[in-house]
Every structure is written in structure tokens, then in C-alpha cells.
Amino acid sequence: MMKVSNTTLFKTQCFIDGQWCDAISGLNVDVFNPATQEKIGTIPNMGTKETQLAIEAAERALPEWRNLTAQERARKLLAWHKLIIENQEDLAKIMTMEQGKPLFESRGEISFAASYLEWFAEEGKRIYGDVIPSNQKGRRLIVTKEPIGVCAAITPWNFPSAMITRKAAPALAAGCTMVLKPASQTPYSALALVALAEQAGIPAGVINVVTGKSSEIGGELTSNPIVRKLSFTGSTPIGIQLMRQCAETMKKVTMELGGNAPFIVFNDADIDAAVEGALIAKYRNAGQTCVCANRFYVQEDVYEQFVTKFAQRIAALPVGNGIELETIIGPMIDEKAAQNTQILVDEAVNQGAEILVGGKRHSLGGSFFEPTLLTNVNVDMRVAREEIFGPVAPVFKFVSEQDVIEAANDTEFGLACYIYSRDVGRIWNVYEALEYGMVGVNVGVLATEVAPFGGIKSSGLGREGSKYGIEDYIEIKYMCLGL
Ligand code: NAP
Asked: H-type helices in 373-437, by residue range?
């Protein structure tokens, strides 16, 4: 069991109305380390009743929180930000322990998570209204902005901290209160963050966390009329289900869902840079990010060169427990994920794909999977059509710009995509033709708190981060004033 120096961060209870508490039933769920399969601890197995209590606490806390000035809320968010940075190493260890990602990635995610608090603390001060030139004499038209109210957030296991703050920071900055449900496999990062929110002086009830039965908790968060907004990050099928559930009470929703990112390398690209970008875009978090490159398209003249260099680099990636400093590729989230990845690879091979690197469960066993490179793939294979969510890179050869645009857009998803080219005219044309919410050009990583993150088509609704990210937590109100 890994040691953290600030033991107050390792919480095994939930946080409702400023109190650390257990499930009413007293029942717990176990949480395991994906690298070692060891039990890390337990979390309360909560359901409908505790979720109601959390929602009611958030409702009680709302009037006082929304009536603070934006500056007062900002000071608390900045105090929370400071505590996260001060505890970065412990938070990173907790994340690696429950999620598996290498420690350097966990440290990076903690900085990234903290950055949303700093950003939205400032953005909260800039929620401006409008005065509209009147269409009639004797009338004044004024627009004001208000916090939407009690918000709910449901988050996935692949970014256990950043997905919490990307929602909590704009919600709290706008004057909303919240109930959070983290993924059952990675609850401790969320609980540690909330422990720091408490220390930062965020009042009781403003932020609440419940863990346990996802369908019961999700059922209450989506049906309770007190909740005015749901922000969900996770898979597309669950997102669709939750959106449907929210329809009855007409909640505002933000949906950050799955992707199927194409990574396109043109003949004129800097191939070494493209290989670097491909490695990070594909193998970060063992291929388990929504913006991970899912399909590689390489133009015919540079295909051999790119594939040879990419294969060499993939074969040299150190796989291991994320807590060991040399590890670049950690385990997948659980053994089932590794089994599913094997099925996808085997299916592709049966349909004619060729394995250039990897292709099987790693000799470390458990949830480890070898970083894999597949060639001879075709569009009918599931590796090309579905989100792989594992360390497998299928590579296609293409001839023309038009062909690759059509292939890249031939998916229900529209989250992130990547282009490598040095021709500015081509970059602009392809950028405009790609049906995606985010386009990385000559970069393999594009998420930052200052830019709008989100997708189109089945990849979701709404944007997080940037000046746009706070809008989903705001209601517009209009006054027509007769003089
Ligand atoms: P998931 O299975 O959809 O789970 C996400 C969250 O939803 C978890 O907290 C889960 O709880 C909860 N959940 C599951 N079933 C539910 C239900 N019936 N009602 C209410 N909540 C429910 O997704 P995942 O496997 O954790 O995450 C991977 C997916 O997230 C991928 O598709 C990835 O692309 C996507 N993702 C998208 C973004 C983005 O910004 N677009 C970012 C990261 C990840 P339990 O853990 O308790 O089951």
C-alpha cells in the first residue's frame, strides 16, 4: 500500500452537507489498484436516499453561496487551487494507485485539474450582462445572468481529478452548488479534492460527493426537480440514457462523451514531429482518453517512413506499475478492459490486419496490455469504427486529401482529431472540412483550461474550459422596463 504524507487526503467516506458520512445501509464497495489488483480500501455504497440528502444540502447552501460576490467566491476557489498545488505529490500518488496512470501523468493531471480553479475563479468575475438598445420609446431592455442553481456532475475514471474540477470550478464560480458522483473505480481522487475544498473554506453543502450505485444515484440526480443541470463525462450510451432521463424535468445538460479521433499525416509533414505527436496522442493513459488518436491515416509517400519510426518508438515504451518512475505505459483500468482490447485485436487480425508491434496481454499479466501497432486494417474492422480505449494504433494508407477527409468524417463521433502538415493552405482547408469540435494541428495534445473542450455529433453537447465553459452554469434573465 502506497504511503501519502498528508493522510487527511485519503478519505473512505462521502461528503454531504459538510459531513463525512457512510451509506445509510452501512454497506461499502471495494476499490482496487489496477496495477497490482490489491484492494486499496472501500467507499460507501450509497443510493437514492443519500443522493436526495446531498441534493437538499446543495439547495440549502445555494442562497448564501450565490449571494457572495464573485470576488468572495474567487478567493475560496483560489485557496482551493493553492491547496491542490501544495498537495500535488500526494494527490498524484492517490491517482496512480487507483487509476494506474504513470506518476508523471498523474502529476500533470493534478496541475491541469488545479488550473480550472484558477481560471474560473477569474472568469466568475466576468459574467457580464447586456443593455440592449430599445425597440420602443420609454422602454429599457436589460439582460442579467444568474447561477442556474443546484448542479449535478457524473465523472469517469480516466481523468479522476480534472473531470471533477472542470465541472466544479465553473459551477462554483458562477454561484451554483453541486452534487458530484465520481466513477466507482477512482473515487479517492475526488474525495481528496473535496477534502481540500473543505479546508479551503468552501461552505457546507456547496459541494457534496456521493459514491455507490450508479443507476440509483444517476436516477435521482436526473429526476429530482431541484437539480437544474447535469454535466456528464463518460461513454456515449450512458450519456444518451442520462439525457433522456433529464428530459422529464427539462434540465440543462453538458455531455462530454466518446470519440474516434483520426490522426492524419500528410506527405509534407515533419515525420519526426508526427511520430512524437502520435505517441502522446495514442498512448497517454494507456490509450484510455476520449481524445486519444483512434485511427491513423498516413499519406502514401511517407507511409513506410512513418510506420517504421512509429513502430520503433512503440516497441521501446516501458510498461509497468505507474508508481515506478521509468514507466510510460501503466495498466489498463481493469482486467476486463485488457480482455476487450485483446478481442478487438484478434478480430482485426482474423479480418486481415497485421501486428507490427505488441498485439497481446503483457507478460506482467492482470490488466497490462502491450502497446500495439496494426497495419493492413480496413474500415469494416471494429478497431476503425469504435472507440478502442486501449493502447492499440491501427494505421491506414491514403492517397488524396479528399479521401482522407471523407474517411475521417465517416463516424458518428466528432470530438478531437489531429493533422500533421506544413502546408498552411491545406491545414486550413482540412480544418474547415473536418467535423470535429477540436483539431490539433502539428500537436498531439490540445486540452487546456483556456480553450473550449468538447465535441459534436455523438461526442456530446456544450464546452468545458475557456470563457465558454461558465455559460452552461448560467441562466439568462431579461428585464423589459417600462419607464
Ligand atoms: P461510463 O461507463 O459511461 O461511466 C462514466 C460515469 O457514469 C461513471 O461515474 C459511472 O459510474 C457512471 N454511470 C454508469 N452508468 C450509469 C447510470 N446508469 N446512471 C448514472 N451514472 C452511470 O464511462 P467510463 O468507462 O467511466 O469512461 C470512459 C468514457 O468516457 C469513454 O467513452 C471516453 O471517451 C469518455 N470520456 C469523455 C471525455 C470528454 O470530455 N468528452 C473525457 C473523458 C472520458 P460507475 O463508475 O459507478 O459505474
From this structure: 382-385, 401-409, 424-433
